[in-house]
Specification:
The structure is a single chain. By secondary structure, this protein is mainly beta. The chain has a single domain, classed as SO1590-like (AOC barrel-like, Beta Barrel), CATH 2.40.350.10. The protein contains one helix and eleven strands, in the order αβββββββββββ. 26% of the residues are buried.
């Protein structure tokens, strides 16, 4: 009986010793960036898979297409810095009589620029969903949304964005010769934009 008690006591002491001196794998702190902004610039000729059709006696356009974009940081119109690429599927409807429509965008953003000055957000991918209210069609590309406003959310990512959540307001609008979508605190939006990194790198 005494031997059993001694063995039990020894096991408890050893367990407590391991707990006290063993490595502590504390979670990395959550990091929040509330000044997030970037721009998608439509790549000329990159639209594929257009499945357009008209209803309402030819006044309402419906389209389901895949678009390629450059992922940019553009402090000024002449100082454009590419930090990655975007592939998006856009399903939208636009009523040409009323001048309004809506869009649902599923996109993969790939951040490739490792220079923290050019790209302060990290390297990796973010899977996103955006919704937007449209007020026009694009004046350069046929069957492409023009102006509009909306919101984007991204909750699934890789590498630096593995445990991250992106939320941002967005504005669709023209860029000379193409179409752009502006996000977050960009001056074309003046909205909210943030990335929350939960336990980054874990």
């Amino acid at each position: 009986m005494k031997v059993s008690k001694i063995m039990a006591f020894t096991i408890i002491v050893l367990f407590l010793a391991v707990m006290l001196v063993g490595p502590v794998n504390a979670s990395k702190p959550t990091i929040v960036d509330e000044n997030v902004w970037f721009v998608w610039s439509l790549t000329t000729g990159a639209t594929t898979g257009n499945e357009a059709f008209w209803t309402g006696d030819g006044t309402i356009l419906h389209n389901d297409a895949t678009y390629g974009w450059n992922l940019m940081r553009s402090p000024t119109p002449t100082n454009r810095i590419q930090i990655g690429t975007v592939v998006s599927n856009v399903k939208f409807m636009f009523d040409t009589t009323k001048g309004e429509g809506n869009a649902i965008i599923k996109a993969t953003m790939t951040f490739t620029e490792a220079d923290k000055v050019k790209n302060p957000y990290g390297v990796g991918t973010i899977e996103c969903t955006a919704v937007a209210k449209l007020t026009s069609l694009n004046s350069v590309f046929a069957l492409v949304p023009g102006d509009g406003v909306g919101f984007i959310v991204g909750t699934k990512g890789t590498e630096d964005f593995e445990n991250a959540k992106l939320t941002a307001d967005l504005v669709l609008g023209s860029i000379p010769g193409t179409e752009g979508i502006f996000f977050g605190t960009h001056t074309r939006v003046n909205g909210a934009g943030s990335i929350v990194y939960h336990n980054p790198g874990v």
